[in-house]
Amino acid sequence: xxxxxxxxxxxxxxxxxxxxxxxxxxxxxxxxxxxxxxxxxxxxxxxxxxxxxxxxxxxxxxxxxxxxxxxxxxxxxxxxxxxxxxxxxxxxxxxxxxxxxxxxxxxxxxxxxxxxxxxxxxxxxxxxxxxxxxxxxxxxxxxxxxxxxxxxxxxxxxxxxxxxxxxxxxxxxxxxxxxxxxxxxxxxxxxxxxxxxxxxxxxxxxxxxxxxxxxxxxxxxxxxxxxxxxxxxxxxxxxxxxxxxxxxxxxxxxxxxxxxxxxxxxxxxxxxxxxxxxxxxxxxxxxxxxxxxxxx
Length: 296
What we know:
The protein is α/β, with parallel strands linked by helices.
């Protein structure tokens, strides 16, 4: 089973669509189907449960996905080490982060890395910061910019280079929420519409804060991505909990303001995360060393 087959399998597992995967990989859907069928015959298992509308990994497929990613990582590390002996490093490194992190934390790092390693291609993927550590753990990304959780997963290395308080924000033009909350009592908090992250560290700390105060919050909306919270708050839909650095870098920062009553919630520790074993790759290690030097 060659590496190209493994790559196709991983792409299909991530996209859950034969047609979209085939289009992205510039092959026909029928060829992709034949590749997957040949893999299933070779392994004597069903890798995907599929019908006319859905494609989903089977239990065996989920196990094989972990194996496929690990195998490709080992191969990439080996080949990168061989190429590095010839002189300049070449290849690609993938990075995952939120939109805010891409132009606040990463800009200076990538500018310097590009100057030092012009032959290394950067694959930058942006999305919800709540997905960052999971994507690194699963081998989908080499490095991610993320908030450090209370407990870091096994096999992960984390380098902090900044911190950011978690703050409540409201619309710059709307005073009604602060007027409703005069004393900060639990009964008053229950009447404030909240806009919070659907999941992730900020949501976990919000839940802990609410539980400690002993009230049931009025959740107006649960969103994916901190940037979306700023947008909804600026329109006056409610009060949002968000890392301060997101507000400072938002194009809508003039349309929101810090809420009068601020929670006593632990700040974000922001940094870079990598699978420790990926540091054996000279490409990943080169970027990691630059991040280390940048944060010192």
